[in-house]
Amino acid sequence: MNDVLETICSRRAIRRYLNKPVDRTIIEQLLDAGRMAPSAMNKQPWHFYIVTKQEDISLYSAAIIDAALKSLPNTGVHDLSHGVEFFKTADPVFHGAPVVIFITAAKGNEWAPIDIGMCAQTIFLAAKSLGLDSCPVGFGKFIEQTPHYKRLGIAEDEEVILSIII
Questions:
Q1: CA 161 to chain centre
Q2: What span, in angstroms and rounded, lies between the C-alpha atoms of 150 and 58?
Q3: 123-124-125-131 Cα dihedral, nearest 10 degrees
Q4: String of b and e for 6-32 (b: at least 16 CB within 10 Å)?
Q5: How would you write 23-92 as a 3-class SS string?
Q6: pLDDT tens across 7-56, in order?
Q7: Residue 80 has what pLDDT?
Q8: Are 139 and 63 in contact (CB under 8 A)?
Q9: Buried (b) or exposed (e) across 109-143, using 16+ Cβ within 10 A?
């Protein structure tokens, strides 16, 4: 099996992380790789917002769970929060990862979710090739419904499509 296929086949969504920072040059390499992903009409709609301070990541995680519980009362999330170990961990959204990347696009861009999915997959494969684990975190979208959202500096005409952890 060649290196590319081996990387594809060995990548997994990991939800346990070591408390070790990721060097800024590595993060930049991952973002550069993501920018190489295909996109509709080569518009490259993605914007990246990086969080590496553990206290911010923990704060956002707790606020996201609160927002999700308010937004999804009839979907089973509320029931899960009272019984599943996932919600009882110190960081049930970002799993102690040292890097969270919020990926946004202009509101109303119908192709952005597909483009960002390809961008994220490229980042995941790049991370794996560099010896790092990763995971998509759909719950990250709920950051928009928290009191901490403005701290990220996301433009008003953008929306969070996906968050990923490294």
A1: 9
A2: 16
A3: 110
A4: ebeeebeebbebeeeebeeebbebbbe
A5: CHHHHHHHHHHHHCCCCHHHCCCCEEEEECCHHHHHHHHHHHHHHHHHHCCCCCHHHHHCCCHHHHCCCC
A6: 889 889 888 899 899 999 999 999 999 999 999 999 999 999 999 999 99
A7: 47
A8: no
A9: beebeebbebbbbbbbbbbbbeebbbbbbebbbbb
